[in-house]
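In response to the reviewer comment on reproducibility (Comment 2.3), we provide here a single inverse folding case reported in full, input and output, so that an independent group could reproduce the run without further information from us. The structure tokens appear first.
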């Protein structure tokens, strides 16, 4: 298990981020009042980049944990490890952030096992403590510590939903894909693609997003547009770039693939 050094997670250079509303002001106000944050929105719409930007802006180290089915409370809090014949306790990423005043960002929290919620609940209310059962201790969070979680409401199900007991501890920020002009600017800035092609890519993305619920679980994200744009800048044919970076990432269904590819062919 890796020992985290908080200085490794300080973001020195300003990440590129374009606000779409008052999310920066809301985050800063919540941070000043030691309130936890919930970021909700579709895949690839800028939630992680926003967290990087805010960590840079607040000059706090950022530890991002990508949640998955096998993520346990011990993965976050820490565990005993045997090394050189000795048993030592090793803090997990959440514990290190709590102690050192970092920002811990749990991405796609609903993917984690349910015991992780037991751990974050006392950190996400007025107690601001982290219980470590194996040590029999409670750690008070550093005043500059912050916890943020994210999830995609589009993937909610009976088995993977964010319970009210969790949701109502957090200040929620809703994210969505930016407007066409801003999304084109992001694509140009992130890839170096010319404005005309970027505009076509954004139009293509809008077409795929209209198919959500009609064969696609999600439309093309801003992230996928940037991937396709980088391929184009590298000399890949636009239609091929859209097929590889967008269509194939969205679906494996042959009929839907054909439909999405037809959309890109109509624009490029």
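Designed residues, in position order:
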């Amino acid at each position: 298990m890796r020992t985290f050094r908080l200085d490794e997670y300080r973001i020195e250079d300003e990440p590129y981020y374009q606000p779409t509303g008052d999310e920066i002001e809301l985050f800063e106000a919540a941070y000043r009042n030691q309130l936890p944050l919930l970021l909700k929105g579709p895949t690839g719409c800028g939630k992680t980049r926003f967290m990087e930007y805010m960590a840079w802006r607040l000059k706090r180290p950022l530890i991002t944990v990508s949640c998955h089915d096998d993520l346990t409370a011990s993965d976050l809090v820490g565990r005993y490890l045997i090394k050189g014949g000795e048993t030592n306790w090793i803090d997990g990423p959440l514990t290190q952030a709590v102690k050192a005043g970092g920002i811990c960002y749990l991405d796609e929290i609903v993917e984690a096992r349910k015991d992780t919620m037991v751990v974050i609940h006392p950190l996400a209310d007025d107690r601001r403590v982290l219980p470590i059962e194996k040590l029999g201790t409670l750690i008070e969070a550093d005043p500059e510590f912050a916890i943020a979680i994210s999830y995609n409401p589009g993937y909610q199900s009976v088995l993977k939903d964010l319970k009210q007991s969790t949701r109502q501890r957090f200040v929620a920020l809703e994210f969505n894909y930016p407007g066409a002009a801003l999304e084109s600017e992001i694509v140009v800035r992130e890839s170096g693609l010319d404005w005309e092609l970027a505009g076509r890519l954004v139009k293509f993305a809008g077409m795929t997003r209209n198919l959500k619920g009609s064969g696609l679980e999600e439309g093309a994200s801003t992230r996928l547009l940037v991937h396709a744009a980088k391929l184009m800048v590298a000399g890949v044919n636009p239609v091929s770039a859209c097929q590889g970076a967008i269509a194939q990432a969205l679906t494996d269904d042959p009929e839907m693939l054909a439909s999405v590819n037809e959309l890109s062919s109509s624009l490029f």
